[in-house]
């Protein structure tokens, strides 16, 4: 099944999802290490069998990841090399270029501030994206995209998208949230930290307080975080703020481990 899909025909969003699932064997949302090497090997074999050379994009991909046993790709990287009908996944790439843009988008579409993008919010997000990209669609297409997106990104199957789940739309390198995975804290720890940096107890922290917090986090977690990137981290996280006020709930999305 996966093999024929690798032979160069345009595939549907659903087929794309099948390929993704097939190669993300451990289901962690990335194709990495051995999974990635398997994918590359089978891609090469499938193209050969079909009498096709690798496309330019595939060649560049194989050059970049073929010898790299630490390689790791996300959905966005896979979408670059497998041509899908309607280029379903590629317009995310065009619309969400950086972590900061992604965080702003998140803030805008999580309209009920639940900390999740639920089905209706996801639908609104996709609707706006389609309109922006000047793609024609009808209600059933929109429904199909919404369901596909959910199946693709809802790793814990709770029927809604969390921030880290949805951040998988970003290319791996742009996804600063991945770096914060290793420094996430329990709810209790997080509350302590928040109170420490929210010195006047206003319930939110401002940009300077966030910077102080990030610098301390970088100091403590040198292997995960790079102090030279504090400005980028700050910009992305502040995109979640409410006019410069970063409330506990929003910062928790980045720093607090999921309790459920
Ligand atoms: Ca994986
Ligand atoms: Ca929500
Ligand atoms: Ca979920």
From TrEMBL:
Keyword terms, alphabetized: Acetylation, Calcium, Metal-binding, Repeat, Vitamin D
Q: Name one Pfam family in it.
A: EF-hand_1
Q: Which InterPro entries match?
A: Calbindin_Ca-bind, Calbindin_six-EFh_dom, EF-hand-dom_pair, EF_Hand_1_Ca_BS, EF_hand_dom
GO MF, one annotated term: calcium ion binding
Gene3D superfamilies tied to this protein: EF-hand
Question: Where's the EF-hand domain?
Answer: 11-46, 97-132, 141-176, 185-220
Per the record, the domain of life is Eukaryota
Q: What does this protein do?
A: Buffers cytosolic calcium. May stimulate a membrane Ca(2+)-ATPase and a 3',5'-cyclic nucleotide phosphodiesterase.
Q: Which family does it belong to?
A: Belongs to the calbindin family.
This protein's name: Calbindin
